[in-house]
Amino acid sequence: NSTGTGGLNGSIRFELDRPENARFRGVFEQLERAKKEIDAEVTEPIGWADLIALAPAGKARYSFLREFCGTTPRFDTTRVGCDYDAMLTPPYGGSPELKEATVRFRENYASTGPLTGARVRIGRADAQTADPAGLIPPEGATVAEYIAWFQRMRMSIPALVNLSPYVDPSCEATMRAEPSVAMLFAELDNKRNAPGYLEKPLVKNFRELATRGPAEVADVSRYVRVGAN
Fold it and tell me: How many CB atoms lie under 10 A from the CB of residue 152?
């Protein structure tokens, strides 16, 4: 946000011409379509900042389940009963195998939040103009620049390590080359072998990042309409 202390304010919709945001243009087009569909069904249009906070929760839930079910190479197994569309739709399937797979999935990923209905804080005020340029390090930044950025947002170095694959195309490789965080990456790599272990710190740190700035003064009653049918 404009204060440089982190959080989501939706200003990216005014900043897509910046080089560091070029990779988000396709994503933003998807969010525009989603916003139109949501706004057509509700009284109070959803804010851009809130939508940007909600979208990763839904994406993570689907991605975690696909990996758990063995549709990606991460786990060397195909789980009996896995049907990730049915497992995300109440009443979560009817066969005993599907119910068992759903239970195991929820047990392994219980604390990741999106899988257990954990709430995403909403009610943020949307920015009406672009934030100043230069708040986010450009692709190819140094270790010191990435660390300074996270410290300004009151985020830890372990959080930077956990989120580095999603910062920009160069952040993870840059941080992995830094000897002082080698043990943190080794610990992270060890967590890849068990369902849910890698995801728990990732979701925790994203949630911390998303609750900075505008979320700290969010109007939690923004979408509440007393007496509405």
Answer: 13
